[in-house]
Amino acid sequence: MFVCHGNICRSPMAEFVFKSMVDKYGAADDFYICSAATSSEEIGNPVYPPALYELGRNGIAVDKDKRAMRVTRDDYQEYDMIIVMEQYNIRNLSGVAGFDPLNKIWKLLDFVNPDAVEQCAGDDISDPWYHGNFSKTYKEIASGCAGLLKYLGYR
Question: Which positions are annotated as active-site residues?
């Protein structure tokens, strides 16, 4: 599960980029990929139009019915990995899921160098909600997702 603050920009971008990548490997049946928010501000809202545009510009298919949802305590138990976009998301997750006793929480950019992965030590994915550069954010997400695939053994 990919997680960001509102689930309308970064985490759905990561969800659809990663779905596209695993589909190209023919491994879609090996994964259940989803995204969620740590806040309730955007719940029920669709993916932000500039994020949709950037995904389409890069040939990434998007589920047009995707709506923002909030991560739950049960999600922590259900998913093997909770992959956040920034340090702030880790703090917010502790209020939703408690601490991380099973070491499931990672930052997406932890995986940019999959041979030297250190959990939650990577950089933050920049938030295009504030800077407006969806292309920059897409490139960071694509890099992190490619590293995640390598980390999971898809070389």
Answer: 4, 10, 127
